[in-house]
Amino acid sequence: MRPVTKADIASCMINMSDTEIGVMTFPGLHETLWDEREFLGWRDVHHKTKGYLVFWIGDQLRGLMVRAAETQMPPGRSAICALCHTQQPAPQVSLFVAPKAGEEGYRGNTVGTYLCADLACSTLIRITPSESAAIPNVDKTLSHKSLGIRDRLENFSNRVLGLDVS
Ligand SMILES: [Zn+2]
After folding, report:
1. How far apart are CA 108 and CA 111, in angstroms?
2. Ranges assigned E (strand) in 82-132
């Protein structure tokens, strides 16, 4: 992805109040390997349940905040991240909810999804052997997985924005 600055991030969040943006924690942007990621995803080290996803849709930067459910899925089972489609031990996948943008969000409406708990899908798809761990016959290659993540991020953020008509 193209690099972004803290100012870029602070101005692109679609489902956060100014107060929330004021206290959000940023990742180490200087250490980020931009060429090896579809999106910037990180957990807030000071607000443990919060996480953030920031990505480009064409020339438009879009970011959203998600909250992890307090309950973990039971160990000994496996789960699949809805973004990167990697199958993993259940505790490494969390249920997250994103407050909807605008009025709907103020009323408490959210959109839920299962995601890698550390929001590091971009790293994961680069270290996971594609044959064994991914869903069979889907997302075989890295470029397929990469495109898939970007598509699904756009779709998810459209749901947060209330743009989905289906
Ligand atoms: Zn993932």
Report:
1. 10
2. 87-89, 93-99, 110-116
6 C-alpha to ligand 1 centroid (Å): 23
Q: Are 73 and 87 in contact (CB under 8 A)?
A: no
Span from the CA of 69 to the centroid of ligand 1 (angstroms): 16
Domain residue extents for the chain? 6-161
Please tell me the pTM assigned to this model. 0.91
How far away, in angstroms, is 99 Cα from ligand 1 center? 20
| Contacts for 100 with CB less than 8 Å, ≥ 6 apart | 15, 109, 110, 111, 160, 161, 162
Q: What is the pLDDT along the chain (166 residues), one digit of tens a residue?
A: 999 999 999 999 999 999 999 999 999 999 999 999 999 999 999 999 999 999 999 999 999 999 998 777 777 889 999 999 998 898 899 999 999 999 999 999 999 999 999 999 999 999 876 555 555 555 568 888 999 999 999 999 999 999 966 5
Distance 90 CA to ligand 1 centre (A): 12
**Residue ranges with CB less than 5 Å from ion ligand 1:** 81, 83-84, 116, 121
